[in-house]
User: Fold this.
Amino acid sequence: MPLPLPGKPVRGSTSGRPIMALLDLLGRRWSLRILWELHQGPATFRELQARCEGLSPSVLNTRMGELRQALLVDLGDAGYRLSENGDELIQRCLPLAEWAETWAERLPPPSAE
Assistant:
């Protein structure tokens, strides 16, 4: 699947709006988890795979290529890390993470069936 780019049709939208391209990219399996794990600090390929338990090497390789091409992740001496763009994206997601914690507290506990 090609990298979703602003100005081009993407999954679920033909408008080409940048937000739709970003949502397509972030909606791909493991993309958000990878970015969230890199927010915790740089990681080699194997470390990142271990942090994302259950992630296959082929999917990780594909996602890392997409996230690097989208300028959200860089590869340096210490391994993969968030780029300046990736860090800014995560900083903008932190209020959503805080909201999710509050939301989770308000939900009734899961029933034991």
User: Anything to note?
Assistant: Residues 47 and 56 are 13 Å apart (CA to CA).
